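Reagents: none. Just compute today. Methyltransferase type 11.
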Amino acid sequence: MSDVVDNPFFARLWTAMSSREPESLRRLRRENLAGLTGRVLEVGAGTGTNFEFYPATVSEVVAVEPERRLAEHARKAASGAAVPVVVSTDTVEQFADAEPFDAVVCSLVLCSVDNPDDVVRQLYSALRPGGELRYLEHVASAGARARLQRVADATVWPRLLGNCHTHRHTEDTITGAGFRVTAARRQWTFPAWVPVPVAEFAIGVARRP
Ligand SMILES: C[S@@+](CC[C@H](N)C(=O)[O-])C[C@H]1O[C@@H](n2cnc3c(N)ncnc32)[C@H](O)[C@@H]1O
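Predicted 3D structure written out:
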């Protein structure tokens, strides 16, 4: 279990990357948050890139971001957001709240936690019955790209990119925790022939029954 996330290199890199996101990714972020209502827990908020996309029907966002340099950026983004956002520097594993949430948001984060099965089970428990998990995650591909992902994960990729793992079967992790997926699709963010390990995304809604 992660107690501390302290990654100055990745914090600099992600701050630069998240300030120059392509419109295609911004569209996916907007889609992932559309129609949310009530109290929301956002896991690993990074620089707070999602905050501007929360609809006015959200009453509060509690965002956890344990990398303190990124949390600083997230707090700035929170102060300009249209809905109330509080940022905690807990890891998701440390985070606990007495009140259940109406929704949990994960974007580009289940690749980076040490044990996604445990984390998704914890998120299930943090939701009220009927509450929803919104996810936007890059996932394990098939064929030659799967081989490329396995090599990336066994070598430099997680070290350079804040513990990011490219070959994770995140949709299986979500259903394995007891969620019922009510909407889901895959989206390529690069043409399929471009040889990068992170290209295929899963976006969806999963409910706690
Ligand atoms: C690739 S970034 C994505 C940031 C943000 N979710 C987004 O969509 O832009 C992954 C984030 O997960 C955070 N993270 C890593 N391990 C975590 C943990 N155990 N608990 C909470 N956040 C974590 C990192 O600090 C980083 O901000």
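Helices lie at 8-18, 23-33, 68-79, 116-126, 143-154, 157-160, 170-176.
Action item: order primers for follow-up constructs.
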